Amino acid sequence: MAVTLPESLLGQYQRFSLYNSPYPAHDEGCAIDLYPGTLRDGRTTAAPSPVSGTVLETRAVRAPPKPYAPEHDYLILVDCDGPDDLAGLTARILHVEPSVEAGEHVERGDSLGTLVRAGFFAPWVDNHLHVGVRGPDQNPHRASGSLPLEVGVEIRPLGWDGTGTVVATGETYAVLDAPTHPDPGETFVGVRADGGGVLDGGLPHYDGGGVHGRGGALEGDSTPVSLNGDRLGVARGRTIDWNDVVVTANGEPITGLSLFCARDADFGAKLICPDTEFEAGEKVRVRVRSSVGD
């Protein structure tokens, strides 16, 4: 069964993604990353609880070794009593050093602790809570096995022609001023795929992605997905297998595009480019090309 995450849960966060991750827990949209901070405040440490319920357990877990990250991450298990669609299920929450203990009751929005940047994070990934949901008869400690998730909010698709001006940079990324959120703080938005729907995922630096809101258009065995006429891959249901493609910015290859859903005013295309420097004010044109023969 699929579990619907309502607006009361998602509306606490600035951004979310079901697919923008390399980890199998996100396969088929069975986990969600919830970002409390905006693109320009991606290192916030606030960790508001997505659910209400009783804390079942907290534990340290070993993270992949990275020179820029601590050795351990943390797992928090919550026996949910709300929102309603999650009542009776177990929420599995990662990337939070807990300030709560087993037996403690938390309300939705209460602080669970402090967000941590463990070795599960690539250097360009902003701080977030990773959340999966299990049935009461499922093993809550295994990394895989969470139930498929649906988002119970409208996601407005924004057309984007692949161009924009750099408005923010980091060591591994650059953010463009386009597409622009038409109503910040209210509706969630995302980059529109050709033919409709909102793209989600790391293109192509993670194996696959997803598309939200295409409904019946994606109910067949497979449906091609493209952006500005550039073929991205094939969707089966809402899950996309990326083609063998390369993303370019002003004609030069970059690592990729970070695609997600957001409601904050800072929304814009995020270029993942650890090997390419961009400057604020620089105009950029992004394309997606087949890497065959390159």
TrEMBL record:
InterPro entries the UniProt entry points to: DUF8155_C (IPR058817), DUF8155_N (IPR058468), Dup_hybrid_motif (IPR011055)
Pfam families: DUF8155, DUF8155_C
Residue ranges of domain DUF8155 in the record: 4-151, 156-289
Protein name: Peptidase family M23
UniProt source species: Natronorubrum texcoconense
Lineage: Archaea, Methanobacteriati, Methanobacteriota, Stenosarchaea group, Halobacteria
